[in-house]
Amino acid sequence: METAKKLIETQRLQAVLADFVRARDWGRYHSPKNLAMALSVEVAELVEIFQWQTEAQSRDVMQTVEREHVRQELADILIYLTEIAMVLHIDLDAAVSDKLAINAAKYPVNSPKGGQ
Predict the structure, then answer these.
(1) Which three-class secondary structure state does DSSP give residue 6?
(2) Are 108 and 115 spatial neighbours (Cβ–Cβ below 8 Å)?
(3) Helical axes 67-87 vs 92-106, angle rounded to 10°
(4) What distance in Å separates the CA atoms of residue 73 and residue 50, rounded to the nearest whole number?
(5) Range of the domain at 51
(6) Domain-embedded: residue 1
(7) Which has the closest alpha carbon to 58: 28, 34, 49?
(8) Is residue 42 in some structural domain?
(9) Which of 11, 25, 63, 95 shows a CA-CA span of 20 to 30 A to 105?
(10) Do the domain assignments include residue 7?
(11) Is 83 part of any domain?
(12) Which UniProt keywords apply (predicted)?
C-alpha cells in the first residue's frame, strides 16, 4: 500500500530545532504557554510591518526595504509554531490536512464566494 504524501514535511525542521533548544538548555522554558506567548509576539511583529500600509503597499512589500524584515518574522513564526506543536505532540501535517477537510466542507467551491 502506498503511503499518502505529506502536505508539509516538518521532521527535519523539528530535529534541527530540538538540537538547537537542547544545546542551549532552553527546554525548561519552552512550555506551551511560553511558546504561545512568544508566537503571538512574533505575529505582532509581522503585523507591525503592515500596520499603516495601504492594501496596495502591503501587496508590494516584498519589493521594498521591508523584504528581509518580513522574511525574518515569518521564519520566527514558523519556528515557534513548529516548537509548540512538538511540545504538544501535534502532527502538523495531520492537523493541516484535517483542517483543510473541515474548511472544504464548510466553504464549498460552488457556493457564493466560496461559502463565506
Answers:
(1) coil
(2) yes
(3) 100
(4) 12
(5) 12-99
(6) no
(7) 49
(8) yes
(9) 11
(10) no
(11) yes
(12) Hydrolase
User: Which of 114, 78, 110, 116 lies closest to 96 in space, CA to CA?
Assistant: 78
Per-residue model confidence as pLDDT tens digits over 2-59: 457 888 889 999 999 999 999 999 999 999 999 999 999 999 999 999 999 999 999 9
Q: Is the pLDDT of residue 115 over 60?
A: no
Task: Read off φ and ψ for residue 107, nearest 5 degrees.
Answer: -125, 75
Residues 6+ apart with CB under 8 A from 88: 32
User: What CATH number is attached to the domain comprising 35?
Assistant: 1.10.287.1080
Q: Which three cell numbers stand for residue 45?
A: 511583529
According to the per-residue pLDDT averaged within each range, which of 8-17, 74-83, 102-111 is highest?
74-83
In the chain, which ranges are E strands?
none
C-alpha gyration radius of the chain: 18
In total, the chain counts a number of residues equal to: 116
